[in-house]
Amino acid sequence: MTTHTAHQGRWNMTRRRAMPAALACCTALAAALTGCTSTDTGSSSPAPNNSGNPSSATRTGDPGGALARSSGRPTTPPSAGAGSARPSATPVPATSRCHSSELRASIGPDHPGAGQENFAVILTNGSHRTCTVYGFPGVAFVNSTGEAVTPDPERTTGQEERIVTLAPGASAWSALAFTNPALTGVTTVTPAAVLVTPPDETTSIRVRWTGGKVSNTGKASVPQVSPFRPGDGG
After folding, report:
1. What is the pLDDT, as a whole number, of residue 229?
2. Contact call for residues 175 and 137 (beta carbons, < 8 A)
3. Model pTM?
4. Whole-angstrom Cα distance, residue 149 to residue 215?
5. Around Cβ 94, how many Cβ atoms within 10 Å?
């Protein structure tokens, strides 16, 4: 019995001495594993910034941070159709601009040539003051009830827009031209009138149309208007 007790005591003492050594070995092994993880260059996780979000330098969905920058470009509104007068590129002071109530509108006779029909859209100053027009007229072909029966005429390109000063009784004109519809084979309509809107104005002036058939498809023989110039187009 005594011998067994002494043997048991020596075994317990040996176990107590071995435990610290085992713990030290585990600690060293954990430290080694931690060191391997901290030096792993294959990690793809971005380092967080101060806000806890991935650093912007590592974002791939927004090259150069474009989503965070404004382009600084002004929004360009779509250009108005010829059926309404377009605002002037060079604004004319309202004190000098001719208003619809001061103007008389008319359509000059046709001057055909080379398969083209050529008319003049004329605005005449009917007031007692000098005023100005600048740019293109608004033009719309309508039926007897005032409903548009053709697409809006197009605006010619490559022609200079200039301010035209109209003394009382003076006129300005815009060329209205289109290919004879019989040459292009498009369907046509005979408008009852033309609504002419002076530049920068919103009120139209109705003029009876006597120029015959006009394309109503917008595919060919589409009328075009030019910027105003001095005179009556005669």
Report:
1. 98
2. no
3. 0.63
4. 9
5. 8
Residues 128-187: tens digit of each pLDDT: 999 999 999 999 999 999 999 999 999 999 999 999 999 999 999 999 999 999 999 999
**111 or 72: which carries more pLDDT confidence?**
111
Question: Which residue bears the tokens 């197009």?
Answer: 154
d(CA 220, CA 185): 8
Rounded to 5 degrees, what angle do the CA atoms 63, 68, 69 make? Answer: 95
Can you tell me the mean pLDDT for 86-90? 57
Query: What is the secondary structure of the chain as a DSSP string?
Result: -HHHHHHHHHHHHHHHHHHHHHHHHHHHHHHHHHHHHHT-TT--PPPB-TTSSBPGGG-SSSGGGGGGS---PPP-PPPPPTTSPPPPSSPPPTTTBPPGGGEEEEEPPP--BTTEEEEEEEEEE-SSS-EEEESPPEEEEE-TTS-B-SPPPEEPSS----EEEE-TT-EEEEEEEEE-HHHHT--EE--SEEEEE-TT----EEEE--S--EE-SSSSS--EE---EES---
* Whether the Cβ atoms of residue 137 and residue 198 lie closer than 8 Å to each other: yes
pLDDT: which is higher, 101 or 71: 101
**Residue written as tokens 């101060």?**
50
> In this predicted model, which residue has the larger pLDDT, 191 or 84?
191
Place of tokens 């007068």: 85
- Tens digits of residue pLDDT in 66-78: 333 333 333 333 3
CA distance 193 to 140: 8
Give 91's Cβ-side CA count (13 Å radius): 3
